[in-house]
Amino acid sequence: MKKYYIGKIRWMTEEEGGRKDPMPPGVVYHPDMFFNIDGNEEGWGITFISPDLDKTNLITFSLNFTDYLDYIAVGDVLNINEGPRIVAKVLVTDIIDVPSAIFDKFGISYKLVNIPQQLLDVVKDNEYIKAYLSCMGENVLINKICEGMADTYLYDVNDIVDNVFEEYNLPCLENGYLNIGCGPNGDLLCLNCKSGLVGYAFHDSLWEKTYENFDEIYVELPFNIGQFIMLAITDKEHYPVDGYYAEEYLKRI
User: Homologous superfamily of 100-251 in CATH?
Assistant: First the structure.
């Protein structure tokens, strides 16, 4: 199961051999992180979203290779590299599994549930998506706007079943995407059933069938549901809430 690590980042100054400027806020960053494996320093790719340093120095990162999850511990100070150059250091402050641990950490109410067979048939052996669905026994609203409306509205498993198999939403499923929620304008928040990456389908184009190829109306983002939820909670000013903002977000990275 994928793990997420929370840490405090300090960017090295240019005089220390680091970058001229830190990465801009909201950028999906893919450097190498060096940590100890059986007495040897080894570097492996990580992914995190660059924070707004005026507000926080906390980052949430994940390893791109799950074989080395247990080599990182709370209290470790790890180097972030761009090639041979150390550009930042991170003090690991917490380790969480997804997704229920994310909800627990930030005090978001959720309910564990048995996954309906219809959804198990869709996601097949994707254990990460199953772990997400298993805690969606009730709707989860992130960045609530008003009663019943939020920047990110995550459906419970029963609503997922109802929406996924509606005739006007079927093209999502037929193209390998599971509709798990929506943005405030109605764009469909989806999971790629193979990769687990999130994305948006433009609801108006989907329902009006004003497209020839489904890719024309779908915008896939470079992070999975755990990263998406973390971004929505910790950086609501920068995360994409619908298809349009997803396109704009991709232009910045």
Answer: SMI1/KNR4-like (3.40.1580.10)
Report the helix count and the strand count for the chain, using DSSP H and E.
8, 13
User: Is the torsion defined by CA of 174, 140, 137, 49 positive or negative?
Assistant: positive
**Paired strand residues for 96:** 4
CATH number of 3-97: 2.40.30.10
Sorted by where each begins, the domain ranges of the chain are: 3-97, 100-251
Q: What does the buried/exposed string (b/e) look like for 201-218 if buried means 16 or more CB atoms within 10 Å of the residue's CB?
A: bbbebbeeeeeeebeebb
- The model's pTM is 0.75
- For the segment 141-169, what is each residue's pLDDT rounded down to a tens digit? 999 888 778 899 999 999 999 999 999 99
